[in-house]
Design brief:
Elements lengths: L2 H14 L3 E2 L1 E6 L5 E6 L2 E6 L2 E8 L5 H6 L2 E6 L5 H8 L11 E3 L5 E3 L4 E13 L2 E13 L6 E4 L2 E4 L2 H11 L1
Antiparallel strand pairs: 1-11, 2-3, 2-6, 4-5, 5-10, 6-9, 7-8, 9-10, 11-12
GO molecular function: oxidoreductase activity
Organism: Planococcus shenhongbingii
Pfam families: Flavin_Reduct
Length: 173
C-alpha cells in the first residue's frame, strides 16, 4: 500500500473512533422536491451570530442544490432514529417516503422525531479538498428535551447509554 492510502486508512481509523453526533441535513431543489442526507461532519461555529457548519462531498448528487438553495435544515437525530439514519445515508431515491415530515415556515423539509432541528440560511461556502463546507446562520431552533441525541462511534450508532447520564449525575452530587 502506498503512503497516501496508509494515511487515509489511519485517518479513517482515528476519526471513526472519535464519537460524534449524527445529523440529517435537508433542503429542496428548484422544483421544491425535498432532498436530504446523513451527515456527521457537523459543528457549532459562533454564538454571535449563531453559526453552524457541515460539509458535503463533491460526489453527492444533491451537492448543487445544497450549495445554491441558500437554506437548509439540520436535524440532530434522536437515539431511536437509527433506521432514518440508514435511509438517508443509502442510495434510496425517495428517502422522505419512509418518514413523517412537513415543510417549515422557511419552506424547508423538517423530519419529525429529531432531538433538535436548526433551520439555517447559508452564510458562507468554502471549498476544502473534496468537500464543500457550508456555514449556516441559524434562524429557527426546535429542541425536544425529552429525547436523547444519537451517538456515532466505531462505525455504530445509537442512543447515548443511560449509564453515561447516571455517572454524570453522580459527579454533581
Amino acid at each position: 500500500m502506498n503512503k497516501v492510502l496508509d494515511k487515509q486508512e489511519l485517518f479513517k481509523e482515528a476519526l471513526g473512533n472519535y464519537p460524534t453526533g449524527v445529523t440529517v441535513v435537508t433542503t429542496t431543489d428548484n422544483n421544491n422536491t425535498p432532498l436530504g442526507l446523513t451527515v456527521n461532519s457537523f459543528a457549532s461555529v459562533s454564538l454571535d451570530p449563531l453559526l453552524v457548519l457541515w460539509s458535503i462531498d463533491h460526489k453527492v448528487s444533491s451537492l448543487e442544490a445544497f450549495k445554491n438553495r441558500g437554506k437548509f435544515a439540520i436535524h440532530i437525530l434522536s437515539g431511536n432514529q437509527s433506521e432514518l439514519c440508514k435511509t438517508f445515508s443509502s442510495k434510496t431515491v425517495d428517502r422522505f417516503a419512509s418518514c413523517k415530515w412537513s415543510f417549515s415556515s422557511m419552506e424547508l423539509p423538517v423530519i419529525e422525531g429529531a432531538f433538535a432541528v436548526l433551520e439555517c440560511e447559508t452564510h458562507e461556502k468554502i471549498q476544502a479538498g473534496d468537500h464543500t463546507i457550508l456555514i449556516g446562520k441559524v434562524q429557527n431552533i426546535k429542541v425536544e428535551k425529552e429525547l436523547n441525541p444519537m451517538l456515532y462511534h466505531r462505525r455504530h450508532f445509537g442512543e447515548i447509554p443511560a449509564e453515561f447520564y447516571i455517572k454524570q449525575e453522580d459527579k454533581r452530587s
